[in-house]
Every structure is written in structure tokens, then in C-alpha cells.
Design a protein that fits this description.
The chain has 218 residues and is an alpha/beta fold. 33% of the residues lie in helices and 17% in strands. It has a six-stranded parallel β-sheet with strand order 2-1-3-4-5-6, sandwiched between helices. It has a two-stranded antiparallel ribbon with strand order 7-8.
Amino acid sequence: MSPSDHPNVRPRLCFLGPMVGRNPGFVVTQGERLSTHFEEAGYSVLAASPSPNRFRRLLDMIVTLLKEHRRIDVVIVHVYGGRSFVVEDIVSWIARRLDRGLVMSLHGGAMPEFMTSFPRWSDRVLRRAHALSAPSEYLSRAVRSRGFQCQVIPNVIDVREYPHRLRRRLSPRLLWLRKSINSTSSPSGNALSKRSTAGNQAAIACSPPQTTRKGNIL
């Protein structure tokens, strides 16, 4: 029985990707946020893997798919490209071999460049997905240019983590970071260049913005 046969039955979901935010000091990823929200909404959810190590994460995902595939209807793979694309290639192949529904959620501003550098590999992997999504029109457009359909679904944030503050007067405080490199021509050439490079300094300029009488930032 599949959810498509019974529209009132919710699909059982499996989120695969770096769930490293569960470890102290790591950033919470979109896969973690989505899996948590779907679980709170009453869906059956599995998620892997919280391991910071890429190879242990791959092993955890493979074990989850092989061991729990009878409890899974749809696999959502979070795709980041780069070295992790090897992981995403393997788990997406297993998901399709197990005849599970496959959704790929693409992330990372470097994905378009990655797809250009490895067109055959990326096309072969993305072609496995029943649906593709991206958090921005920029990334979606890059995927569509390769002949795929890709829906834009913005990243999820928990608004409870950003309490509203009513400010009657706008007084923004800005921090400007600039890296300055001193370049000096000298007969000593490389030696002086290395010294000047080692002496790079970060200049921090903090200044209030210019405003009009009405308080608009110029």
C-alpha cells in the first residue's frame, strides 16, 4: 500500500543528510528543522545522521535505509554537492533500488558551479529524484537550465527564536569589516611580498549611518 493509493494516509518520511546540529557547537541544518516540524505535525519520521564524520554518516544512512525501508514511503535527501555528493549519490541509488519515493532538496551556492564541473555525474544523480526543490530562485534556475523541474521552497526558520521588538525610533548600529593588504614594490621581490602578506591587518570601522530628518537611512 502506498500513500497515493489512499490519499488520507500520510506518507512515512525519512530525512537523510547532515543532522550535525544535534551535537554541541554545530549549526542546525534544514534537514533537522524539517524533520522536527513534520514529526510535530503527526508524520512518521526517521532522520539520519547526526555524526560529524562524513563516512560514519554515510554508514548510518545506509543502515537506516536497509533496516527501516519497510517503514519508509518517501526519502528526502539533502544535497550539498562537493565531497558530500558521493554520499548523496550512494544513498539516492539505494533509495531507488528499494523502490521508495525520492525527493532531493538542494542546498549551497556552489551547486551551480559543481554541476557545471561535473555535468554527467550531477545529471545522473538528480535524474533519480521524483521531485527536486531548492531554497532560492538562483539555485532553482541553475537546475532548470539543465532540463530539470525544480520547485522553490524557502528555508525554514523558527520564528520563536526571533522575538519581535517594537522600536519607535530606528537607530541601526553597523559594523564594517575590511581587509587591507599593503603592497610595496621592492627589488627583494618575493621576500618582501611574504612579509607584507604576513602583516595583513583587518580594519574595523564602526560609524552611525547618515540619516535624513525623517530617519531614513541614506
